[in-house]
Amino acid sequence: MILFPAIDLKDGACVRLYKGEMEKATVFNTSPADQAGQFKAMGCPWLHVVDLNGAFAGKPVNAQAVEEILAVMGSDVPVQLGGGIRDHATIDLWLDKGVRRVILGTIAVRDPALVKDACRRHPGRVVVGIDARDGMVAVEGWAETSELSALDLALKFEDAGVAAIVYTDIDRDGALTGCNVEATAALADRISTPVIASGGVSSIDDIKALKAVESSGIEGVISGRAIYDGRLDLAEALAVLNG
After folding, report:
1. Prediction pTM value
2. Is 11 an active-site residue?
3. Which candidate in 8, 51, 169, 173 is catalytic?
4. pLDDT, tens digit, for every residue of 205-234?
5. Which of 51, 131, 173, 206 is catalytic?
6. Is 171 a catalytic residue?
7. Which residues of 93-129 are buried (b: 16+ CB within 10 A; e: fewer)?
8. Tens of pLDDT, residues 144-167
């Protein structure tokens, strides 16, 4: 399994939100590129980046910070990016700049055909982000909850060639209350697309619990606040996931 340390960008800084609320942001590093470099030095195999402002604006906002991160990571550590990517032009822009995989969330609900077309145009480089509140998909930077279940949305892309699905339990995101292992494994078990767990990772116990159900189809796990708070030791987590 892959460990994806998270860099969430708000107003050019590296932050973590509490349950997706922009006004409840904690700044952990004013230099996202420096933070990316630290993760690279620690041996992380991937980096997960989200343009939070972009998710609300519907277009890239923290582009400079993303480009600085890409420059630091180079070709050594692949970056997957989400937030405000809602058309082919933006998808092409980021993939051309060196992002390995783009994460499409809101547009996956609003325009599934665009996502499927993007998968055809960019094989293996499109990830669908499914952010759920009480099992229902949230969009527009989590500001709106749709009437679509996480499973129903995932099933729409079963044969589309999606590289992975990032499944986030919003009510646990940034709350350090433990990952929703049961819901993540249940989703992974119902679909053929690999699933990446996100939201609520609070300790090495969450990593071990996810590793134990890896066979359900869980490809990796994203962690942010637990790493920044020192609750999750990166070296220990990497050792568990690689075991």
Report:
1. 0.94
2. no
3. 8
4. 999 999 999 999 999 999 998 999 999 999
5. 131
6. no
7. ebbeebbbbbbbbbbbbeebebbbebbeebeebbbbb
8. 777 899 999 999 999 999 999 999
